[in-house]
Amino acid sequence: MPRRDFFHDTVKHALSKEGWVITHDPYLLRFGGRKLYVDLGAERPIAAEKEGRKIAVEIKSFVGAAEITDLERALGQYLLYSFLLEREEADRTLFLAVDAEAYASLFNEADGRDLVTSRQIRLIVFDPEQEVILQWIQ
Predict the structure, then answer these.
(1) What is the rounded distance in angstroms from the CA atom of residue 26 to the CA atom of residue 11?
(2) E strand spans, the chain
(3) pLDDT at position 21, please?
(4) What is the largest distance, in Å, between two alpha-carbon atoms of the chain?
């Protein structure tokens, strides 16, 4: 089993507060004979606002000494997991969950916005102290 991200429980609680039901913790993917794990899988109940929607969430904290190295790793995982989800469960959408500070530092500057747009990266921006989702970026 992979080691959990620093903000794992925070994002799990924030999703639950918005009406998401956690269905996988973690969400197993396969690459050949290898096992890979996206941090969470979740679904919205049919009666909820986003009917029957299924997501997978990769959580990143960017608390390491090298923020760009963390970004490189996160993007690599996002690309690989997106590819595998498209093949295995095309109706499940992958999101990268980042705290508000990492979003402001990396994704909300000009190069970061261009990266998100050009690579169609879906983000969940959360407040780690309040355990709430601040923004969904698709």
Answers:
(1) 13
(2) 21-24, 27-31, 34-38, 40-43, 54-60, 92-99, 123-127, 132-137
(3) 95
(4) 43
Q: Structural domains in the chain? A: 8-137 (3.40.1350.10)
CA–CA separation, 88 and 128 (whole Å): 31
pLDDT tens-place string over residues 7-31: 999 999 999 999 999 999 999 999 9
Distance CA 117, CA 111 (A): 10
Query: Tens digit of pLDDT for each residue in 64-86?
Result: 778 899 999 999 999 999 999 99
Q: Are strands 40-43 and 54-60 parallel, antiparallel or unpaired?
A: antiparallel
Strand partners, 93: 55
Model confidence at 50: pLDDT above 60: no
Amino acid at 93: T
